[in-house]
Amino acid sequence: MYAERASVVQRAEVIAALSLALDLGTAEPLESALRTCIVALRLGERLGLSQADMHATYYVALLRHLGCTAQAPLAAEVFGDEMAAQSALNPYYLESRPDFFWELLRSIGRRRPPLGRATEVARVISGLPRLQGGAAASCEVAEMLALRLGFDPPIAAILRHAYERWDGKGEPGLVSGEAVALPMRIVQVAQDGCAFFRMGGVEAAIAMARRRTGHGLDPRIAELFGSEATHILEDLNDLPLWETVVALEPHVDRASSKLDLESAVHAMAGFVDLKSPYLVGHSSGVAAVAARAAERLGMPPDDVERLRHAALLHDLGRVGVSSTVWAAPRALGVSEWEAVRMHTYYGERILSCAPALARLGNLVGLHHERLDGSGYHRAAVASHMPLAARVLAAADVFQALREPRPHRAAHTVEAAADVLRREVQAGRLDVDAANAILEDAGAPLVRLRRTWPCGLSDREVEVLQLLARGCSNKQIAARLIISPKTAGHHVQHIYDKLGVSTRAAATLFAMQHDLLDRGASGVGSE
Q1: Which of 253, 270, 298 is the last residue in one of the domains?
Q2: β 258-259/9-10 pair status
Q3: pLDDT at 9 over 90
């Protein structure tokens, strides 16, 4: 059962999956943290680290940027597109301050004409002081989330050093030199080594380490990396990264390899909802609405639990879209909409990597689909949406309506219920899912005078359901207490209305329009 399997899962699988979301949130290529983890462990082995330090290094490598969503809204205000800024600047944070700011100036507005670029540079430079304290916020959030993920306080505390530097010029600037936790110093070398290896090969990675030795990076570790880089990096592009990282998890004791999934999904939901002030509490709100609706619908407790966890993670892919988009008080442009549509895909793909989360990913990928095929990212239709996905979709709509957005105030319960009813009547949301939510909210239910596709009558739908199940005219007649001749007439009328001439084609039509598992009460509109 899902609840039994999910109660305690492999920590490495879940954290490796979360690291992919952190890659998205920091505009790094997917699997960057996995590469960093492998290189950090190889450095740790050469440094003769204890098993406990290897364990800490492993998880710090995967979680270094766990607090990245904490300052995303403010960074978006300063840079306009914080994702583009991060992508350009990430490899240069540990350079000398003059070199870092040169890269910053070089990256701002590079595709704009000269006058526009000058204006953009002036705007960003004037906004930089507002970012002071952003690293401290990210580090505090990372530590809190790590504790919620079940890590021991000493490992969680290491994440406070994520943006510190060997020379003391990092942020928040509280420690320097060997006071920066050893696992973090190793991870800093590993992460930048991987970044420059990706950009320019082994020689670029070695040059980076030599340039930053004693400045941004621990000189002993940077020198070791420079001397061993060829061996450390040579097979990095050929490894199955996910499988390799999960297999490399250093074990301290049995408990250190296990994770409580309930706490983990709540931590991941909090990580997502920090992406925008408009999203704070959204994931937990959707989870509560969906779970109560599922219980009203009589779903088995195991399925309710799975749905609740999926609801907590349904927006995981949002972290890969700029906070500017989520805060836009206007209609989105084409490219912005394409980015939004991708968030369901990213969420599904991230979760599908971990066996413990794969069943949640299936639901997450469907939460913006609609019964009529007008949703995204698959444009799936009713027949591809199980009941849990329908409940999640309706719960997401209802909860979002009850929250403020950049372009509108929060809806009242009555106004949100009215929108939900209209979505059902338009054939986009499931009537049973919506009514369970409306009943829980104490709002009037959806009362539909149903219509069927192609003008089918209620009786013809009943005949089609039996026809699709392989019943003969005689068997249909017996089930519906009509004559075989009348049953035959119904079958012929069905064929005529559907434009088909065979049972197989009629059956396919019934499946495509979700007609097989419902009584003859329809899924149409008033």
Answers
A1: 253
A2: antiparallel
A3: no
